Amino acid sequence: MSLTVPVGSDHQLARLLQIGIVLEEVVEARASKHASDSGADLTDDVRAMLEDAAEESAGHRDRLEGLIGELDAETVAYEEIEALVEAQYEADEDFDGVLYDQLCNEETAYKFYDDLIEAVEASDVQFGIDRDRLLDTLVAIREEEAEGVEEVTELMEERR
Amino acid sequence: MNTADQYLKAIYLIQQIEDGPASTGDLADRLDVSPASANEMIGKLEDNGLAEHEKYKGVSLSDEGIVRARDALQNYCIIERFLVEVLEVEDFRGEARQLESVIDETVADRLDTIIDRDPACPDCFDPENDVCGLLEVPAAADD
Predict the structure, then answer these.
(1) What is the tens place of the pLDDT at every residue in B103-139?
(2) Which of residues 86-115 of B touch A (CB under 8 A)?
(3) Same structural domain for residues B29 and B7?
(4) Which of A27, A108, B10, B87 is the S-S candidate for B110 at Cβ 3.0 to 4.6 Å?
């Protein structure tokens, strides 16, 4: 009855890692836009958090690109995603809107890695990449996303 | 997207094609599961007030079932559109079906921030071709 599909091939794994890269690029581009958006009247600590988040996403992207390279798949250029984010970005978000958007960024990334880890663990396929290294990388990134959720939540609570 | 939502989406689309209840056989075919599996899930959906099954006619969604099916269909549209517009995947239907159980609603919402989707979504979905009727599909992928 279940329609849940474990990751069944290198191709599917590469596709999921590509989606992870795009998500990181969306986070990086949106956090960078928010940080440089003077209209949102951000405090220094929020601006610093956004800059750190953008940097962290770039680091996650590098790690995912390392994995995807071993699967003979291509990454997705940051400039391409940045342009798509730019095209849809609404610059008039206020302070709370910026924090909420960043919370969504972190929560979404956490959920994605959580589901991906589960799907990889449910698979008995021999991937063209070391399974332990794959899972170690994904678990480490998921942990950093969880810390990101916590950090944004604390900033939101300080505002109350 | 969880399994129940995938069933709801499939029932919704079959009902649109048939303009009536969805038969267990059609549902099983669409989801590539056995009729016994489809029947088991239909029973669960009925228990949760999401669908009604009438003997010899088939299954129809309740109002609540329709709401959930449309949400699931919207997520599916986002995945298909993302695969076409951003990753330029030719077999986007096949890959979307594989990905929909792994791509959660929150993830689909984020992917939605970089694609160009019509506000009428999911009403523009073409159930027979299993793709948004407004999506410009590359010629090689339009099978």
Answers:
(1) 888 999 999 989 988 888 999 999 998 898 888 877 6
(2) 86-87, 89, 95, 98-99, 101-104, 106-107, 109-111, 113-115
(3) yes
(4) A108
Structural domain count of chain A: 1
Which residue positions in chain A have pLDDT lower than 50?
A: none
Burial readout A39-59 (b: 16 or more C-beta within 10 A, e: otherwise) = ebebeeebbebbeebbebbee
Q: Answer whether residue A5 is part of any domain.
A: no
Band of pLDDT at residue B142, cut at 50, 70 and 90? very low
Cut 0.90: pTM above it: no
Which of B16, B47, B66 is the C-terminal boundary of a domain?
Answer: B66
Nearest to A3 among B31, B86, B113 (CB): B31
Nearest of B34, B11, B31 to residue B23 by alpha carbon: B11
Predicted complex ipTM: 0.86
